[in-house]
Design a protein that fits this description.
The complex is a heterodimer of chains A (270) and B (271). By secondary structure, chain A is mostly helical. Chain A has helices at residues 4-22, 33-45, 48-61, 76-90, 95-109, 111-133, 137-150, 153-168, 170-179, 182-194, 196-206, 213-226, 230-269. Chain A is built from 13 helices and no strands. The termini of chain A are far apart. Chain B has 2 domains: 3-192, no CATH class; 202-266, no CATH class. Chain B has helices spanning 11-24, 36-50, 55-64, 73-87, 93-134, 139-173, 175-200, 218-225, 229-244, 250-266; strands at 208-211, 214-217. In chain B, strand 1 (208-211) and strand 2 (214-217) form a beta hairpin. The chains are: A mainly alpha (270), B mainly alpha (271). The interface between A and B is large, with 114 and 107 residues.
Chain lengths: 270, 271
């Protein structure tokens, strides 16, 4: 059971983290978007371990997903604020399984909300425009802040759906717990293993993988044959990156020094 | 004539600019103007200070900030700061110059900024905190935030100072170096992707071939040829689906993956 105080705290945390991560982008990114949210949601529900477990799982599922070029992507943040509280409140033996059963559909359906939210933002933009045309700059600033932090993309895409689901969603969750067939639970478990491929594929589309294909293979080989751990591979990669950076810097200095010499020669000739 | 116009902003002023920009970096992002509201909100108070005795010009300057702007937000802040330095001028042509600076720099610097500040940190640090979280460890997450958030805030502020004091030329003259950083960091990123594919994508097959008495698991055959062969195949299929199929979007791909996986899982091909 989620008590009213927990619901209120969850909504406040969801809204604050949603708006702040969209803007300052300083608060959450480095702790992992979903891990940080799972930690906070778990803290509010009184079970940090489960919150972290679900947050970490969603983080891995959404790894590499980013809205490149304004694309809309599955909304794991919304999914997290809903599935962590219910999974902890239900108190079952396998909270992660329930979290998946709630979270995957919510995240996928959440894609559509983002389009609506961006349309509402257009309304706020035109309000700002008309305030400026009237010379009312203070009003324009207030509209920007209210539009974003009051009723903007985060409110429509995250806070409102989470609020509705936390208040009215209990029958749905009870239905899932009671009637979810085993084959669907198993299938969703497989889905959670397959979906990270999307993030990886998207990263490969947007990163210069073709020019650096040998490093893709190097990372793969290091993982499957040597260490099943990301940190040592990251450190090896960092060393290689520094070496490459130094070489590139030398090259660009050499080429710019070369052109400088030509310039100096030009002056001398005069 | 107001004296403030001839005085360069102090570093304290620029912190105020930086926080106002950070607070609204993606505020009211709509398809038609994207991050224009951040430009209005961060530059507005300074424009008001400089042009308070010329309301007509002030209004034109404010309207100028409503134009389309879309950039990775840290470099976006630096470019806006460079535009602010140019707008600190009564000459009306400064507005056109400021706009053209913003428009011409936002594209190239988005690419660099996304590689350095978005993709790599999200993937590398996200993976580390996520694996720690699965074991119930919250310290990694908190330590990452405590170390990197102040560091990046400081770095972003330095970029703003370069933008405002040095102007667009200095940002552009650093472009070689920034490109080199991006290229080097991309190598790290690609390597981590190579490690993450077998680590994140979890799919196997329960299929088995029975010939007479002997049963051979197909998964064992795969493992014998190449560890994590199925995850590599699934990722490759997704990649080619995204790049080779016309009209394929991320959204369609998500639905396709979910449906195909459920079907294959129910008929017992994958697990």
């Amino acid at each position: 059971m989620i008590n009213p105080i927990q619901t209120i705290l969850l909504i406040i945390a969801c809204h604050l983290m949603g708006t702040l991560s969209q803007n300052s982008q300083l608060v959450l990114k480095f702790g992992g978007q979903q891990v940080t949210r799972g930690l906070v949601a778990g803290l509010i529900m009184g079970d940090i371990t489960t919150g972290l477990l679900i947050g970490g799982t969603f983080q891995l599922m959404s790894m590499g997903l980013a809205g490149y070029g304004g694309a809309s992507i599955p909304n794991y943040n919304t999914a997290l604020w809903i599935s962590v509280p219910y999974a902890i409140a239900a108190g079952g033996e396998n909270p992660l399984e329930l979290a998946m059963a709630i979270g995957i559909p919510v995240a996928t359906l959440g894609i559509q909300l983002d389009v609506i939210a961006k349309t509402v933002n257009s309304f706020w933009y035109h309000r700002v425009e008309s305030h400026i045309n009237n010379g009312e700059y203070k009003k324009a600033y207030r509209t920007i802040i209210f539009g974003e932090y009051g009723f903007g993309r985060a409110a429509l895409g995250q806070t409102l759906p989470v609020l509705i689901f936390l208040v009215f969603g209990e029958p749905i969750v009870e239905f899932i717990v009671a009637y979810m067939p085993a084959w669907l639970t198993a299938a969703l478990n497989t889905v959670s293993g397959v979906l990270p491929a999307l993030g990886m594929a998207l990263l490969m589309v947007y990163m210069p993988v073709k020019q650096n294909f040998m490093y893709l293979i190097l990372g793969y080989v290091l993982y499957v044959y040597f260490v099943q751990d990301i940190l040592p591979i990251t450190l090896i990669g960092a060393v290689i990156a520094v070496v490459i950076y130094n070489n590139l810097q030398k090259e660009s200095k050499a080429s710019s020094a070369g052109s400088a010499r030509v310039d100096a020669g030009g002056i001398g000739d005069e | 004539m107001s004296n403030a116009l001839n005085e360069k902003l102090t570093k304290k002023d620029l912190w105020r600019f930086g926080w106002r920009y950070a607070l609204t970096a993606q505020a009211n992002q709509s398809y038609e103007a994207m991050q224009a509201c951040a430009c209005v909100y961060s530059m507005g108070p300074f424009l008001e200070r400089w042009f308070s005795d010329n309301p007509e010009l002030l209004k034109k300057k404010m309207q100028n900030q409503l134009k389309f702007f879309n950039c990775q937000t840290y470099f976006g802040a630096a470019i806006t700061a460079a535009a602010l330095a140019i707008e600190q001028d009564e000459d009306p042509t400064s507005m056109e110059l400021a706009t053209s600076i913003k428009t011409s720099l936002m594209g190239p610097f988005s690419g660099i900024g996304d590689a350095i500040f978005n993709t790599i940190p999200k993937v590398v640090m996200g993976a580390m905190t996520a694996y720690a979280a699965l074991e119930g460890n919250w310290i990694t997450c908190v330590v990452m935030i405590l170390i990197f958030s102040p560091l990046i805030t400081w770095l972003r502020q330095k970029l703003i100072e370069v933008g405002y004091y040095g102007g667009a030329e200095l940002i552009t003259s650093r472009k070689d170096q920034l490109n080199n950083i991006r290229d080097a960091v991309s190598v790290l990123g690609v390597m981590v992707i190579g490690a993450l594919i077998p680590s994140l994508v979890k799919v196997s097959t329960p299929l088995a071939i029975t010939v007479g008495e002997a049963t051979q698991n197909i998964q064992d055959i795969f493992d014998g040829i190449l560890p994590s062969a199925l995850p590599v195949i699934v990722t490759a299929l997704t990649y080619f689906g995204l790049t080779k199929i016309k009209g394929m979007t991320t959204v369609k791909m998500v639905w396709l993956m979910i449906i195909v996986t459920i079907v294959l899982s129910v008929i017992g091909v994958i697990a």
